[in-house]
Amino acid sequence: MVAGGQRNGQVLLVLTGAGISAESGVATFRGPDGLWEGHRVEDVATPEAYDRDPALVHAFYDARRAKLETVAPNPAHAALARLEREWSGEFLLVTQNVDDLHERAGSQKLIHMHGELASGWCLACDSRFTWVGAMGEGARCPSCAATGKVRPDIVWFGEMPYAMDRIEDALARCTLFASIGTSGAVYPAAGFVQTARYVGAHCVELNLEPSQGSIFFHETRLGRASEIIPAWVDEILAQFVQSSPMSL
User: Fold this and answer.
1) What pLDDT does 40 receive?
2) Which residue in 21, 73, 197, 225 has a CA-CA distance of 20 to 30 Å to 97?
3) Which residue out of 58, 77, 112, 114 is catalytically annotated?
4) Strand 150-154 relative to strand 128-130, pairing
């Protein structure tokens, strides 16, 4: 179930992607170059890549984890945290991002459908735990003490995203769906707008440029996330104070 009350009768589901964190300095997978030190994303973000070269995969995620210490949430993250606090209906934020910028901005009703950089997963005992700093091949599981069995708690290509039951429940009941900073290229997230529209939700896309699924949205707003997201949040909150919820 989506966390929150139902005072205005509306269920708001927000999906975010790499575009919302790009302005904070977090590199995207699917930029113009799409590479990390000469390697394709598919070479460092699949189970097969991990089996083939775990040192390379660990180095990739260790570098990304270290990068988090040098970046900070931007106004778009802060605006969504404010929306969560002030929205009087049900609210859920689903992010494809593995950074922790939403949490650091104050978001709490949040699902990381693709996992988190600050989490480890032990393949020996199947436990997940907070992880800070480098992991590497010799990481020791804090639960079972196994060594060399800890991998980044990241959903790689070919693996099932997390909490899909909760997400699908929210999609089935949402009345307002917002997609922010996503390319519309990665499923199942790319198909969320079609489900939301099918159940009658008003669907809005906020992006630097139209996504691959722009045709499915009722409206598209283009611009820098740090500018258009705070403005949209102001508008949405004012609209529900000043007019009927059904005016959307």
Assistant:
1) 78
2) 197
3) 114
4) unpaired
Report how far residue 61's alpha carbon sits from residue 40's, in angstroms, rounded to the nearest whole number: 14
Is 114 tagged catalytic?
A: yes
Which parts of the chain sit beneath pLDDT 70? 1-8, 29-38, 241-248
Residue 98 tokens read as 């593995």
pTM of the model: 0.90
> If you search the block for the tokens 């995203």, which residue do you land on?
161
Token pair in block for residue 46:
């699949």
